[in-house]
User: Fold this.
Amino acid sequence: MDRLTSMEAFVAVGEAGSFTRAAVRMRLSTPMVTLHVRRLEEHLGVRLFNRSTRRVDLTEEGRQFLSYARATLDAYATAEMALRPGAGIAGRVRLDVPASIGHSFIVPALGAFQRVNPRITLDLSLGDRGTFFRVDGFDLVIRTGEAPPSGWKTFLLGTTRLICVASPDYLERHGAPSGPDDLAEHRCILYASVEAPGGNPWQFGHQGKKIRVRPPAAFTFNDGAAILAAAREGLGIAQNLAMLAQEDLRAGRLVEILPDFIGSTLSVVLMGAPDRIALPHVQAALSFLTQRIDWNLDTD
Assistant:
């Protein structure tokens, strides 16, 4: 069988965690993808996946081989482009972005990205996991307020800050807090993560002092867009990134409260491993993300 196709099938299953989803991605039947992977395992003499009725997980050998297989496929794509320069840059770029930022900034730009890079497939992962260390398997990641892994290159997209917001309806019914301590008497909508399932504390700065409070949670979400939607419905006070709330603030759907208690300022950065960024298709995606998207992160 075509060993290159078998390698593509292996990578697709490894990234999708499913033979069925890999088959959809490759536009092959599931039995054909299964056959390609089995023949590759026979050729290598190792088991690449642990299979069960519910899960497909990479073995230790499979995890090691995955990075080499990706590099091989990338090298082939680069060589093909060198022989067919008029065909344009091609390849698959795996990008991981917090869901709220992805929906607000990346998804609206996908049409323009496709027009500029018609042969590049952008594999976009959207999720607010609350855990930075999940960068394996991605070419590029966007994060706010987090340091990059060792050796990764970073590109500053802008800065934003944490602000507290509420709907005019909520403020009419419950009034506005005059300080962070007053939040204990209000209904609050918190961001929950794996590390803080009950909701992350809120941070403020006032007269040179840092203030940290954990307001009572009326609701918790692990998605910034859901937090803003709940705040728009008048369900409570929320703390969120100004870059995500700016349209609601301009339209009057939300009102900033506690403006004298400044929330943390956070850097919004795009990151990638140097060996991945050097690839032409990843470089093309990086250029588009840094130069063609209006991040508009004005924190004023």
Summary: The two ends are 60 Å apart (CA to CA). The chain has a mean pLDDT of 87. Residues 67 and 136 are 10 Å apart (CA to CA).
